[in-house]
Specification:
This protein has about 450 residues and is an alpha/beta fold. The chain is built from 7 helices and 29 strands. It has a 7-stranded mixed sheet with strand order 1-19-21-22-18-14-17, with helices on both faces. A 5-stranded mixed sheet has the order 9-6-8-7-10, with no helix packed on it.
């Protein structure tokens, strides 16, 4: 986080969506890299290229259960005139001391086992009698059940080309190759590759720790009984889930009552585990807008550069917003409005890019596209505001879901896109091409 204080403007200044986002992204900085164990690095971003130290696979090995043989010995093999070879023993995966396969010989070989010296190809067991002398078999008997199968003779009924069913050394990656580039997000396949080339730790930017808290004395936790004038706290659950979806380690704090001192104490207690703090509610102009009251003058003389700037944005929903830093480490804090749709839209537009920036990603935004509007009637939008309407997107078309109200949680649950109506547009007719933010 930069030590620079947030931009200050006149109380009547109406910020655009782009100005507010620019201010956030100009202030938030990627977290410092650390070395993590592989599983702890899942979801993190690599900060350096990873070079392959040893080829993968590191030796020629069999891709089938069967017999390692010489090509010439099975060249004319058929079911009528099978090649009959002496079985000299077994080659199992992980075996260090390898047999030598000479002319007229074969070694039983298991999938993943090294190709023994002298052998040039692998004949699948299904092309043989498995050493039983009873025609083609469908599999190989376990050594524990049939130790004699590793000796005696085997009948081979089909020829095999050189290096058939052999995984060549370095056929996956070669020593010196670049396995992964800096900037790669580590998912399960990337972690598998790192483990396969022998890397137990990796240098990454850690997943940011995000603390989410909602405010309001009217909020009750799910599973509790509602009293008169109370509602369930959905915002903290929605935004904590959204933060995790964005790649963060997110902590949810139960709703804080409308008391400025309590809120300040709670925020102070949570700073120890926060790379980013998100509050929801209490940022408008009401007499009980506790976040604004508690944080408007939070900067101390010994914490130069800290402070929260509360501003109005030319957008709907989500006009009231707050942004700045708090505490000795200048932890960034985004204060979002309390209406459920307002807070979620604000999260997608402002908090998610901040989280992705902390992670060190280059592309921090949701994908956008153009789509044809499908609706029963024209959409209306207030002049001078950029409106974000919930919608469902499919096959190049987008359909509004629910109305423009900022309290419509049910409609939000069925949306997978935001329809963007620019500031200078007051009406959008069905069939018009519109900009769409894809949420899923």
């Amino acid at each position: 986080m930069s030590n620079a204080a947030p931009r200050t403007t006149g109380q009547d200044h109406l910020w655009s969506v782009d100005e507010h986002l620019e201010d956030i992204l100009a202030t938030v900085r990627p977290l410092e890299p650390i070395e993590l164990q592989l599983l702890d690095a899942q979801g993190c971003v690599l900060v350096e290229d990873v070079t392959v130290p040893v080829s993968l696979p590191p030796f020629d090995n069999s891709s089938m259960d069967g017999y390692a043989v010489r090509v010439a010995d099975v060249g004319g093999a058929s079911e009528e005139f099978p090649a009959v070879l002496d079985v000299v023993g077994d080659v199992a995966a992980g075996q260090a001391d390898l047999l030598h396969v000479g002319p007229g010989q074969a070694a039983r070989i298991m999938t993943g086992a090294p190709l023994p010296p002298g052998a040039e190809t692998v004949v699948p067991v299904e092309w043989t009698d498995g050493g039983l002398g009873e025609g083609p078999v469908t599999g190989m008997r376990a050594r524990a059940l049939s130790p004699e199968g590793a000796e005696g003779h085997v009948h081979v009924y089909r020829p095999a080309e050189a290096r058939a069913h052999v995984r060549a050394t370095g056929s996956d990656v070669k020593a010196g190759d670049r396995a992964l580039e800096a900037g790669t997000v580590l998912g399960p396949p990337q972690i598998a590759l790192l483990a396969a080339i022998g890397r137990g730790t990796v240098r990454v930017r850690p997943r940011p720790r995000v603390v989410v808290m909602s405010t309001g004395s009217e909020l009750v936790q799910p599973d509790e009984d509602l009293g008169s004038g109370q509602i369930y706290d959905s915002n903290s659950f929605a935004l904590t889930a959204a933060a995790r979806d964005a790649g963060a380690i997110a902590y949810r704090v139960g709703a804080v009552a409308d008391d400025a001192e309590t809120l300040r104490d709670t925020i102070e207690d949570q700073l120890v585990r926060a790379d980013l703090m998100v509050t929801t509610g209490g940022v408008s102009v009401g007499a009980y807008d506790v976040v604004k009251e508690a944080l408007s003058h939070v900067a101390d003389e010994d914490e130069a550069g800290s402070g929260i700037d509360f501003r109005k944005l030319a957008m709907q929903p989500g006009k009231p917003q707050g942004f700045g830093s708090i505490g000795p480490d200048h932890t960034p804090l985004l204060a979002l409005p309390g209406n459920p749709v307002s807070s979620y839209v604000s999260f997608e537009l402002f908090v998610r890019p901040a989280i992705r920036t902390l992670m060190g990603l280059d592309d921090v935004h949701r994908p956008r596209t153009r789509a044809k509007l499908t609706a029963d009637k024209a959409l209306t939008s207030p002049k001078g505001r950029r409106q974000f309407l919930r919608g469902t997107y499919a096959d190049g078309t987008v359909t509004p879901v629910g109305g423009a109200g900022s309290h419509l949680v049910a409609a939000l649950a069925h949306a997978d896109a935001l329809i963007v109506v620019p500031e200078d547009v007051e009406s959008v007719q069905p069939g018009t091409e519109v900009e769409v933010v894809l949420l899923g």
